[in-house]
Design a protein that fits this description.
Blueprint (H helix, E strand, L loop, with lengths): L19 H9 L6 E3 L6 H8 L4 E5 L2 H12 L7 H7 L9 H6 L6 H14 L4 H18 L23 H15 L5 E5 L12 E4 L12 H11 L30 H11 L5 E7 L6 H9 L5 E9 L12 E9 L1
Parallel strand pairs: 1-2, 1-4, 2-3, 4-5
Antiparallel strand pairs: 5-7, 6-7
Helix pairs in contact: 1-2, 3-7, 7-8
């Protein structure tokens, strides 16, 4: 699908950017009608569903990912003009300095922190899709400049030579605006930020579920890795900063999908919650604690016919050539 090439890329844990064309082929074989992407993450799968002509609803529990969906999936025709960009890049309206004061010496040079503070003084005057586009471009720029795209480290040791790591955030923001504007396309869609169990399946023909994969070790805490982007999307309003941490993390949000102790019950409840749609499409990775056979058995409790598709996949997470965890098989289950 040519439209998918327009979608801005972000280094996001579990992103389906590379898998989107294959998922589009699978979606095309399923019953027509509206679709839900209940764990929308980077937004690329919701965008894929919309590009396939389906009315689409994207849901995620993070604010910055929901903002991406508002700007690039739910938005039908609004873009940021050259005048909008010039204003967003102009001096601060009120001299605010929360980002500069909070993150000095951490992720970016002082001039970049000052740019983000100033840009937010103008974002506060925007509404609707333009506001979502401006915030999405700011988040994309920050993610592009941070090594590996995650905010768990404050040193340049993961510098992999990408030009974005050494560009001013203002320049990256302008690039991100261009990418976001180019991705806007017509079509009915919506976006919400909330718990997946509060997401109403409604009249959807397809529900796509890509929950966090419970790993044998470590964790799948998105807040830990992307706390700066979550804060940037809200200007840290309503966020609880852990001031004792060097990285200025936000308080972790529990998800039953992220732990091998609770994931089986959580998935069983999830499949039951989305029992109404004609088709259920579930993505899961081979590097999780739950294996394919067990997941298929869980899904078979709620769907009569379940088929499994295996896709070799390399996750764009990590930079070193020996990162074995990047190599995995993506399991896509289709339940009818």
């Amino acid at each position: 699908m040519d439209a998918l090439a327009a979608y801005p890329r972000i280094r996001f844990m579990g992103s389906k950017h590379r898998l989107a064309p294959r998922l589009a082929e699978i979606f095309a074989t399923l019953p027509p009608g509206p679709a839900i992407d209940a764990f929308s993450g980077s937004g690329v799968v919701a965008y894929t569903l919309k590009a396939g002509g389906r009315e689409t609803h994207a849901n995620d529990h993070l604010t910055f990912t929901t903002t991406l969906a508002e700007a690039l999936v739910a938005n039908e025709d609004e873009t940021l003009t050259a005048e909008d960009v010039e204003k967003l890049c102009s001096p601060s309206l009120d001299g605010r300095d929360f980002i500069a004061a909070t993150f000095t010496g951490l992720y970016f040079p002082d001039v970049d922190h000052a740019f983000l503070d100033a840009a937010w003084s103008h974002v506060d005057e925007l509404q609707g899709a333009k506001r979502a586009l401006a915030l999405s471009a700011l988040c994309l720029a920050a993610a592009w400049k941070q090594p590996r795209g995650v905010f768990t480290v404050t040193t340049p040791r993961y510098d992999d030579g990408r030009r974005q790591l050494h560009m001013p955030l203002e320049d990256l923001f302008k690039e991100a605006v261009t990418r976001c504007n180019a991705a806007v396309m017509p079509g009915l869609a919506s976006a919400t930020c909330g718990d997946v169990f509060a997401c109403d399946p409604g009249q959807a023909a397809i529900a796509y579920l890509d929950p966090p994969y419970a790993p044998p070790r470590d964790d799948t805490c998105y807040v830990k890795r992307y706390h700066f982007l979550e804060g940037l999307a809200t200007y840290w309003r309503g966020q609880e900063i852990m001031w004792e941490t060097r990285t200025r993390k936000l308080v972790k949000r529990h998800t039953p999908f992220g732990s091998k102790r609770t994931v089986r019950d959580a998935l069983d409840r999830l499949f039951d919650h989305f029992s109404a749609p004609q088709a259920l499409v579930v993505s899961y990775g081979s590097n999780a604690d739950l294996d394919a056979a067990e997941l298929q058995a869980l899904l078979s409790r709620h769907r009569r016919n379940v088929r499994r598709i295996e896709i070799p996949h390399r996750y764009a997470f990590g930079t070193h050539g020996t990162a074995a965890r990047r190599l995995a098989t993506e399991y896509v289950f289709v339940g009818m």
